[in-house]
Each structure stands twice: as C-alpha cells, then as structure tokens.
Design brief:
The complex is a heterodimer of chains A (111) and B (113). Chain A contains no helices and 11 strands. Chain A is mainly β. Chain A has a single domain, classed as Immunoglobulin-like, CATH 2.60.40.10. In chain A, strands 2, 4, 5, 9, 10 and 11 form a 6-stranded mixed β-sheet that branches. Helices cover 0% and strands 49% of the residues of chain B. Chain B contains no helices and 11 strands. In chain B, the strands form 2 sheets. In chain B, strands 2, 4, 5, 6, 9, 10 and 11 form a 7-stranded mixed β-sheet that branches. In chain B, a hairpin with a 6-residue loop joins strand 7 and strand 8. Chain B is globular, with a radius of gyration of 13 Å. At the A-B interface, strand 5 and strand 10 of A face strand 5 and strand 10 of B.
C-alpha cells in the first residue's frame, strides 16, 4: 500500500508567492524525506527530517513533521519559476529499510 | 563528483521483446537501487543491492524482471519478455550506505508498443 500521499496533486502559483505541499503517511516512520523532480529528469534530494524532529529549514525550504497526525508539510518561500517541478515525499519505516514514495505534487510557478 | 550514470536514455521496443538497462553508481556507494516510475506516479522500488547482495526485491516481478550487480559496482536490469504495462522510466540510484541520502540518475525511458 502507498505509504506517503501528497496533497494537493497539483498547485499553480505566481512567482514570489509561497507554496505549501502536504504529505500524509500511514505507519510509523524512521524519517521522512522530500525530493524534487524536474520534467524528464531524475529525483533530487531536498531535505530529510527525522521522526524526533518537528521542523527543519534549508534555504527557502521549511519542512514540518507531526508524527501524531502522521503528516508533513513542505513550504517553499518566495517561489521562483525554476521551482516548477514535481515534489515527492518518501518515508522509511525502519532505519535502512525500503524508501516508499508518494504520488507527488506538481508545482507550477508562473513568472 | 560524477553522478549516477544510466543508459540507454530512451528505448522503444515491441511487446514480448527484451531490453536491458545499465547503471553505474557514484564511486564508493555501496547501496544501489532500481526504481520504476510510471507516468504521473511516484517511483516504486524494484530491487535494492548492498554491494553485490540483494537486500530487497519483494516488488520485482521475477517472472520477467531480473537484475544483477556483479563485483558490487555496475548493475543491469533486464526485462524479458516486455509487456505494455512495463512502459515507464527506470531510475537507478545509489547511496553511500542504506541510511544515507539517495542520489538518482536521469532515468531510462522505456516505451513498449
């Protein structure tokens, strides 16, 4: 069964606005990761948050994790056209076990 | 640092034919992964190697898919015979070990007609 599910499936915003994507999962996790995939390319790792962490920042990215609700959010601030891509969350239930990806959110940032 | 290399980038075959994809991971990375990504979906793990041993192949359709990683470096993924539903991007990835960040290649796009 699918572990991570992103919401919304698609998001369209204007350059300069903030973009928020959510990920929900079903079972306990060791950590949660976010990846970006530009059209026709491979996935690029963005950020990892461990199950005992609640918030993490990296540049314009802010990730939160709520293990009680089994959910995470990815916030991209001051979005740019170059942020247009699909964003996936991925979880592993046990340290070193299979990484399971969600279906992704397609983000479009209009110039 | 060179990234994960994959070839071919694109392949079109007829159903029931065979195809093979090759992957060269980042130097020094012990863990190698093959993912299948169907258009509009997230990647699904097919097989995971730790050096040249298989760690997880529970989602690999073993009646038609096979993979090997000889000498714990390069890997090949083979599909024989191919079905229409095998049309997807096959992503190879590697990591230093099983708990580190995963680095993906650009993928091999397969169309089965």
């Amino acid at each position: 069964s699918q572990q991570g599910e992103e919401d919304p499936q698609a998001l369209s915003i204007q350059e300069g606005e903030n973009a928020t994507m959510n990920c929900s999962y079903k079972t306990s996790i060791n950590n949660l990761q976010w990846y970006r995939q530009n059209s026709g390319r491979g996935l690029v790792h963005l950020i990892l948050i461990r199950s005992n962490e609640r918030e993490k920042h990296s540049g314009r990215l802010r990730v939160t994790l709520d293990t009680s609700k089994k959910s995470s959010s990815l916030l991209i601030t001051a979005s740019r056209a170059a942020d247009t891509a699909s964003y996936f969350c991925a979880t592993d239930a046990v340290r070193g076990s299979r990484l399971t990806f969600g279906e992704g959110t397609q983000l479009t940032v209009n110039p | 640092e060179a990234g994960v290399a994959q070839s071919p980038r694109y392949k079109i075959i007829e159903k029931r034919q065979s195809v093979a994809f090759w992957c060269n991971p980042i130097s020094g990375h012990a863990t190698l992964y093959w993912y299948q990504q169907i258009l509009g979906q997230g990647p699904k793990l097919l097989i995971q190697f730790q050096n040249n041993g298989v760690v997880d192949d529970s989602q690999l359709p073993k009646d038609r898919f096979s993979a090997e990683r000889l000498k714990g470096v390069d890997s090949t993924l083979k599909i024989q015979p191919a079905k229409l539903e095998d049309s997807a991007v096959y992503l190879c990835a590697s990591s230093f070990n099983r708990v580190n960040t995963i680095y993906f290649g650009e993928g091999s796009w397969l169309t089965v007609v």
